[in-house]
Each structure stands twice: as C-alpha cells, then as structure tokens.
Design a protein that fits this description.
- The chain is of the alpha+beta class and about 170 residues long.
- The chain has two domains: about 90 residues, Conserved hypothetical protein from pyrococcus furiosus pfu- 392566-001, ParB domain; about 70 residues, no CATH class.
- It contains five helices and six strands, in the order E-H-E-E-H-E-H-H-H-E-E.
- The strands form two sheets. Strands 1-4-2-3 form a four-stranded mixed beta sheet, with helices on both faces. A two-stranded antiparallel sheet has the order 5-6.
C-alpha cells in the first residue's frame, strides 16, 4: 500500500464550534492542563487541532480546544482537516497520540535542551527539569543509556517518575 495523505484542508475555526470526540480515550490531568496552558501563553498555539471532515469530530487537540474554550470560546483555532472513515477515525484515536510513547529519550540531547531553555512560567521550568529527571531515572547507566530497565525476559517495563507520576513504557 502506498502512502496517501489524508489531509484535505486547513482552516481557522471558532473554538466553540469544535466537537470533542466521545471515543477519545485520553484523559488530561490537572498538571498537564497547567503545563499546556502555560506553554500556550508562552509560545502560542504551535500545533493545529486535527478534525475528521467526515464526522466533524476532533482526533487530536482536545486539551488545546478545552484551554481555548476556557480563555475565549470565540477564539479562532487552527484546524487541519483529514478525511477518514469512521473506522479509520477510531484507529487514529487509538494510535495517534499513543504511538509517541514508543519513542525513547536521548538524555544528553534532553539535558542540553533543558540547559538552554528558560521559561517565563515556573511550571514549564519545573516540567523541563522533571523530564530530565525521568530520563535519568529511565536510563541510569551513563555508559549505556540505551540499556532498558526491563529484564531480559520482558518485552517492556512501565516506568513511573517518582516526582511527577508521569508513566511511560521503556521497551527493549
């Protein structure tokens, strides 16, 4: 099967006109909302909300729309429209955000970014420091940072940051 772009349009849409997807399985805890709100205030909206043209439902960006609704329901939001069948929409909801949890962290690159960035909002500075602590916790061996915490007979291990309680899977 060849790769086909399902992106069909871009538009600015009033926040209150966007519809949350009832099948969305992602829950946004207060800490995530605080970090998101601060990042939007510091950087602005830097990622479009994805909406399925066929159903009119949000596929990605529920928390950003929620933040916009809190600030100003009439705010214009950048939307990227995709054309997916209802079955494809369910697949996208399942995989879209969750697949990013499969990425691993380059601790040295993250450390450099944390050192170079200073944020106006304290929660963002704390969050960046916590990311580095999580990376160091997940990869405690500085000589072999790719060495997973999972034992040899496991395919994956769930890691939880002791400070912020963020959870992710560390895979072999």
């Amino acid at each position: 099967m060849s790769w086909v772009s399902k992106i069909v349009a871009h538009a600015k849409v009033v926040a209150s006109e966007l519809q949350a997807n009832p099948a969305n399985h992602r829950v946004h805890p207060d800490k995530q909302k605080e970090v998101l709100q601060a990042s939007i205030k510091e950087l602005g909206f830097i990622k479009s909300v994805i909406v399925n043209r066929q159903t009119g439902m949000i596929l990605d960006g529920h928390a950003r729309v929620e933040q916009a609704m809190t600030e100003n329901p009439g705010m214009l939001i950048d939307v990227e429209y995709v054309d997916l069948s209802p079955e494809e929409e369910r697949k996208a909801l399942l995989i879209l955000d969750a697949s990013s949890s499969l990425a691993t962290i380059d601790s040295s690159q993250l450390s450099q970014l944390v050192d170079e960035c200073r944020f106006d909002f304290e929660c963002l500075q704390e969050f960046s420091t916590e990311l580095l602590q999580v990376a160091n916790y997940a990869n405690p061996d500085p000589i072999n940072p790719e060495k997973p915490l999972a034992s040899e007979d496991e395919n994956k291990a769930e890691i939880e940051c002791p400070k912020c309680k963020f959870k992710w899977l560390n895979k072999k």
